[in-house]
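Form 7-S
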Amino acid sequence: MKYRYTPPAVFRIKLIGVLGALLLATLGCVFVLWAMHRQERWMREDMEHEARLLAQTIYGDCFRQLTTHSLEEACHANPRLCRQLTAALQINPDWRRIALFGQNKDGDIFYYLDAPDPSEREGAQRGDLFPDAPAPLREAFDSRVITICGPCNTPRGVRSRIFVPVQIPSSPDTAVLCLEFCAQHWRQHLWTAARPPLLFSLIVLGGWIAGFVIWARRRRNRKAIILFSIHWKVLVTIAVGLLVTLIVSWSVCSAMARARKVAFSHFAEAESQPSVDWISNFCRREIVGFAAFFASCDYVNKEEFASYSQPLTQASGRLCWSWSEEIAATNQQAFVEQAAARSGLDPYSIWEYDEERNRVPVPQRDRYYPIVYMAPNRYQDHVLGFDLGSESNRLAAIHEAYASGFITASDPIALLSDTEPGILIVRAVHHPNAPHQPQGFISAGIKLADWLFDSQSLKLDQHPMADLNLWSLQVGREPQWLNTTPAHQTALKPTWPWARPAQSNLQAMRPILVFGKTYAIAAAPTPAFSQLYPRRLIFFIMACGLALTGLTASIVSLLVHRREKLTQLVEEQYQELTETMRRHRTLARETRAMTWEVDITGLFLNIGDFSEELLGYRSDELEGVLQFVELIPTSHRQAILDRFINIGLQGLPFTNLNYPVTKKSGQTIWVTTNGIPVYNETGEVIGYWGSTVDINARVQAEKALRASEQRYRTLFEGMREGVALFEVIRDEKGQPLDARFLAINPAFERIIGVKAADVIGRTALEVVPDLGPDRILIYAQVARSGEPAFFERYSPLRDKHLEIGAFRPDPAQVAVVLNDVTERKLAEMDLRESRRQYAALIGNLPGMVYRCPNVRQRTMEFVSEGCRALTGYEPEDLIKDRVVSFDDIIHPNYRETVWAKWQAAIQEKRQFSMEYEIISRQGERKWVWELGEAIHDDDGNIIAQEGFITDITSLKEARVERER
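Output:
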């Protein structure tokens, strides 16, 4: 390969372009990595916040469930808390597992409990060791700080886990809450955060490469360099300004969105904290203290119950307090009498509601749970004696409270009436001397309508930052909405936040694990919060960036305008000259033209670039060496020379001077020449300047065209078929009226009996009156659609049968081909008459004419009507052996003889003749005489047997009579 030297300046330009592209690509990668790192940090902060809120809701009774040493209590406690944590997985669709770990004295980490998503495999059992504990989990135990593990690939998919240390109340031990996330969307969020900086980087890199390529090629394209020189600085200024504005706006917008999300999370946490504290205090103080009051006394009368419950019922949100006892069916009567005295309600009875909410006596059951005491007193007449076990929700809460020994809440129920929805909180009370024997239970009714309203520290008229919705979560069920804080939405049932596409990332969820149930507070921003973060700052930044960009671009444009104006003028003139030369070269190349200049004697002075391709001579082989007439063959040289001298003496230009020339290879081609005179200072002609174009292909094409036209004319005039070319005549609406003759051949003249001179230009209906309008419609259809038409017509006027074909050679024209088939038609008529006479002759013969192949069965191909009288069978019955073969009709005594004699006659190439008997369809025996002969083709092969069979029975009988 030949070495090509690269000038140092060009090399430096290329090096600058490559290094600049690498630098921009590196900065773009750093920008993308920074955005991904920031997004990952934000997602880790969100994970820590969610895990911390979950850890805060695990109260002391939850840990008592975990740390209980009673096997019976542990059997009930662990599944209960597992259900609560499994239900809490619905708070975030990315949560997959919640686990609590402990650490023994040997440093081994074990499971307190494991609550996986129902779609996952079963969780670990309490006490199972976790030998493969990751380092972040051990760090959480050792340092008591929140740690994060992942995201990493696991058999269950891409997961992340966060470990939150939780101090066990009244114990030096620490538990660690593990919240496992499905990190499938983790990488998607990272890619989403990386897309804007990646797009910005690609735009900058693409702009750098495009600008560098345009600038590097400016010497090849003069127009491009002028435009590039004028506008590149302004365009670069505008592009950089817009890009910087977009980057700053995006950075500020993403930072504001993050700040808005963090602020809302804190607002939501602060505004939901009173609700959490309210229910926590209720759990820890009121119901636990009330239960301890009953457990410390052997007997609590009505006055003591009213005295203790009075301050509790006055607290907002508590609808009622009650004391109920578990009564066996055998002790029902005794309990009723005792309860009437204790409650002061006489008569006292145990009752329940029927389907229509009417009070009815309880049916027979093993156990009853009637209300003995009720506070406040205004509800006593309505609820005393009501069997809480008569409704499934209450009964399930009672059973769980008895079985677990912990405070238990029911599902949402109607507490005192249909208009008072709430939940029933149950706490079992055992005998002091018999811990496993239930004494009764304390129950409190909480109004859902007051849980959030009364627990909020802010009033609605103080413009809270978040609207709170309370939801109940259960395993295997859809989340159930319980209550909401905005007063105007209390009659509406909102949608679970994860059941609809997220309208905004401003939403917060806070779990509450209490009373054996899982609740969630969903927070949504209010208009008051939206007013804290207006979007005016983004628009202000964009407006400032655009204004600064426009101002800078204007200044740059003014600075370069004067210098570029002169450069542009020069470049435009240069461009015009270049364009003229390009057009000249293009014209010469496309027209295959050779430009030349000769003196007055015809000697070549200057030759263009196309001479070698046109004539085979280089320019130096012609200039000053040859005269143009020396290239012309001798047969045309003198005529061209005389014409050139005549033109030159007059000083006239010449055009389209066609003549042959001889190339250097000896080949003769045709060219056309155009020239104009060249004058000196005195006005005398000193030569000519012009161009010569190769027209050899055109000359050859014209010769071929003339030859083709001659062949077409010879074919047209020598055809036996008549051919006529018509032009369809239409009215103003496009309907066909007639057809005008354009041309006809001699055969058409002979068939129709007209002369071409008499019909050309005349209409078809005028020349051929019996043509008819239907024929005009056919020709018009062919001219319109292009589909040819074929048909036959009889012309009574000329007593001729004609085969006619119509074709469309051009739009609005039809070519008609006529073939006189009168003789063929007459021959066909004679043939049909002969066949009719032959069929009549055969039908009148006293016997049967037949044709069959040379086979033993003698399967008939043709049988005359005489078959019916001879054999009793219809002719169709014998054809193709439809009913019977002819061999079967022959008497068995003669079948072999007939076949043998037929084969002998065929071998000897003579006629077959024999008398034999047949059996008719009626069973009658007849004597017949058969005369036949084999038919051969040109190769001597037997085609068929043909012959005649007649009835000679009467002749035979007469012969027998004579012999007697």
